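Why this split exists: single-chain examples teach little about how molecules sit against one another. For that reason, every record in the complexes split bundles all components of an assembly together and asks for one structure covering all of them. Below is a record exactly as it appears in the raw files.
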Amino acid sequence: MRLTCPHCGARALEEFTYRGDATLRRPAEDAPHQAWVDYVYLRDDPAGYHSELWYHGVGCRAWLVVIRNTLTHQIKSVSSAVASPAPNKSDS
Amino acid sequence: MHGILNAFSSASQSSERKTSRLSGNGIDTTKTLCFSFDGHNYTGHPGDTLASALLANGVRLVGRSFKYHRPRGILSAGPEEPNALVELRGGARREPNSRATVTELYDGLISTSQNRWPNLAFDALGINGMMSPVFTAGFYYKTFMWPASFWEKFYEPVIRRAAGLGRAADEADPDHYEKNNAFCDVLVIGSGPAGLSSALAAAESGARVILCEQDSLLGGRLRAENIQIDNHPGWQWAEDIVSHLRNMSNVRIMTRSCVFGRYDGGTYGVVERVSDHLAEPLPGQPRQRLWRIIAKQGIVATGGIERPIVFPNNDRPGIMLAGAVRTYINRFGVTPGQQAVVYVNNDDGLRTVSDLLAAGARIAAVVDSRAQPSSQAKTIIQQTGAPLFFGARIADTSGYRGVKMAIIRDNKGKNHRIACDLIAVSGGWNPDIALTTHDGGRPVYNETLATFVPALDSEDLHVAGVAAGTMTTAEALREGAQVGQRAAAQCGFREPSTPPVATPAVDQDETYGVVAQWHALDKESSQRAGKAFIDFQNDVTAKDTKLAAREGFISVEHLKRYTTLGMATDQGKTANVNALALLAEVTQQSIPQTGTTRVRPPTQPVALGALGGPHRGKHFKPYRLPPTHQWAVEQGAVFTANGLWLRAQWYPRSNETSWEETVNREVKTVRNAVGFCDVTTLGKIDIQGPDAATFLERVYVNAWQKLPIGRARYGLMLREDGFAFDDGTTARLGENHYVMTTTTANAGPVMQHLEFCHQWLWPEMNVQFISVTDEWAQIAVAGPKARDVLRQIVDPAFDLSNEAFGYMAAASVTICGGQTARLFRLSFSGELAYELAVPARYGDALAKLLMRVGQSYGIAPYGTEALGVMRIEKGHPAGPELNGQTTAHDLGMGRILSKKKDFIGKTMAARPALTDPSRPTLVGLRPLSPTLPLVSGSHLLPKGKPATACFDQGWISSSAWSPTLKSWIALGFLAHGPERHGEIIAVHNPLAGTITEAEIVSPVFVDPEGTRLHA
């Protein structure tokens, strides 16, 4: 698999580290306990497009929002995490 | 006995015929090469494969089959070969299961047959054939069930000896393997008519083209067929195109390069057999090279694989695929038999008749399963006069070590016994579509072609020629050019080529006209009918398929696993479609209903050595060397791996007899005088920006806003789930400037974490990070005399006194008369200690300088082992304590969790279960008998209770002999630990089976008041 880093261009998979769901929002400190449990532990497992965070550790060290099809590994988009608004579940 | 068998064997070998060599378009008969097979010496020519050379020497019997040990010959002329597997070379280079059909001959080649005992001509296990009822489908599951205890001791070893392939080398591979990457616009896979014309069209459009051919020669089937293109022999036309392509700067041609896999994002795996055609690699050359080719567009022009027809005793030596017969005649100048039966269900196979006649062989019969003779068949029969049986089939064959006779059943059901030494079989062609299915592509069944063709819905993959189901040369050339242009256009090369590439003219009417005939078996299979093989390599017969279906294994996936069909090293390349057709017939379904033929990479066997490449032995992973490494080597240090880092573990002296003695001496040196240790490997992250302090507050559990410039502070980081992540010190060097240290192991993960927190969680913060681990050589100088030593180095203008530069102070200083350095008063050992950082290039000089100026104070270097002993003596947690399962509370640091701010992990760390006092919490342990070792991993139990899980109260995480206390000491985690100091507890080491007693104490064994630290 290859990802096109907005800063470095198309690069091989081993330069990147996967983190996970990019639609999660860190709850406020005083948010209900369940919100924290959901944030830390609960993950969707969609078959199809998924907004997710990747880290270009062997490149520019940018965190990236990648929309990837979990069935085909097709990459719909890659954008810099800083520059792009956090996606919602419905975005992918 | 032995002598008789040998005599038997040589008699049979000498009876093999010697055939005269014709000219072939792929061999050089002016030179002769010597080789051996099973100890007999033969000759061949450059350009030969082992298979063609064996055939030229009249050797037909080349192996024994997997289960029944039946004599087998060469079936094919390509990588699909199921039978002719041999051991190549010897010693450390011994290579089992090498396909003779793709093994290039070199002078001195040594090969041996496999899976026979005592020799190939007389195989004692040939009797397995008579025991065949035992070896039917699922025999593993049925036969060797009882008694169960017999499996490991008896059945399995016997089966492993009886049913086997070759032997791997016993020694390490002496050869070198490489890895490389290549990039192109268009990757063309295969160099037959479709491949060459697509490469040419794409290249003429201006695209960067890589053409990969698994063979040593380019041209594909053009070398195998007697065909004219533009009034030249096809292979000459191919050579002209190749030399044209070689002159183009945008084309790279790779031969002996098998594209074995297609992966996401236009990534292709390719293995280049750089030196397999030589006895040994040339100096400096690898044996094989693994390529990763990144292509914007891929063109699969891999051609096809011919199908056998399933008939009784269809596996005898001398029964060969018709296309392979033509390859041996036209490319290699070898006639595989003198008296041939040609058995086809299509026109393409009929070409074999004229080629055999041209090569001087006699046609004993042509058997065409089609009900009516095609016009092509009529023409050929008119021209050759060979007897033609149409609507006929081969009902059986005979000849134990090689076919001697075919029994032909004509369209009236009458049998004809025809003597022959070669049966050329064509059941039609299967497009070689493996690469189109690797990323999930599902092939579709084409009734007209009676096979599966790719159904591509891909923007970056194209198929041309036979691989696409285009069965004639003229159409393949045309389609190749179209596809090549289309692929180039997809990459943005839309300019038509100048002058336009003319489609070459093929001066032959080619027809295919296949009518499916999968097998030639009777409806009611007679008990006496011979075995009709579908999968030659795994010895799976038509009967096995029927039996499996009767037993309920009607899904193609179940059939495969139950009968082992298609699971041999050839992956059923010649078997799979026939098997599907047979299963369809048995289950009375259509072929598409029965299943498809999707495969996974690799398309051909790939040596693990090639996949590993150069990453073996000490090159398995890279080493990072701290700046004082070379100096430590000169001191005779012993090294240990710490992640990727290689660190000095201890520095033995000549009079020391054990590592314990050395480590004790190093600890005493630090506790009584002064020592130094390279701590460069700790992660160092430079943090700058107006929001740096606020950021540190968010990632560390403790407070940072009030840390003054010139001071350092210990910090603990949690994960968001509340467990401890990493710790270290961070010093404030300026108003908006901090330098953080991490543990050696977590330097990378902490950097990633900080970037995540900043870029994703709090992008509004004005702060930046950069790793400076490799920029600074950092050396800890520790011991009561540390200040005295540093006074010799740090420029005198800087006040080193305890009052001016106390514990946890940090400053930029100059040393040695103006050299910039950083000085931190940090201590891991608990002694008066500093860490001095200089630009990395001065690390080696600093070590030497410390030795010189410290000599009068008794200075000595110390390694990671002494470092570890002293941190246990001081009760500092390290890797074994920060193991990802412990909380701040467990580590005795619950009180530093700030309540005034949010930080990563705060909310989840507050969960009641994570602060429960019954959670195992950090304690110190001393054995009641000081010399009795405490061992890490031991369990802590209440004294007198049984050593069972329900009494388990904790464990030992770190332990060491403390030369300072003259006792073993340990750190561990114990339920209600801090309340139990003074209690005696049982220490259970289940590995050694011991239970000893220890006293629970404070984890700080040395200087709990911190007097030495603050001295």
